[in-house]
User: Fold TetR/AcrR family transcriptional regulator from Mycolicibacterium hodleri.
Amino acid sequence: MVTPRERMISSTALLIRERGAHSTAISDVLAHSGAPRGSAYHHFPGGRTQLLSEAVDFAADHIAAQITSTATGLELLDTVVTRFRDALVESDFRAGCPVVAVAVEADNGTVLDRAGAAFTRWIDLIAERLVLDGVAEPRARDLAVFLTSSIEGAVVIARATRDVAPLDSTHRQLAALVHAEMGSTRDDR
Assistant:
């Protein structure tokens, strides 16, 4: 059973991805999650900073689970892009990435540090997946940074233009790159 605390964290992540960090007030989180008014400071004595930080961690865990559930780098790419694409379309282009929203808007070192840790974690997991596919570690790390920044940038552009074409185009180009890298590692054996 999901606790009020867990509902508040997931609600915060959902609201941040649509509204941004600055526009997500604790009162909005309470209304969205259905949590009692006094529960915010009971569950989050660190206030809004703690709530934002835990929402970033929640989003980081969600994407990390998507990454680690895949069998290949190409499947990883397809899974992550499809999830972002679906979220954009289903939300009428309101839903971006909560970690990006916090990274762009954070005026608090703690929250910004959590966003940085989320990106680093994703990059590490993607690099690990690519190494398992036979890509050399230094190249896998570079590709992981490139994939992460390309997908996140494409989500921002798709959201701003209210069109999935930038994400679809980025997906095709990244898939070709990953396929070529995996092919070149097979040819080198």
Summary: The longest helix spans residues 137-161. The two ends are 50 Å apart (CA to CA).
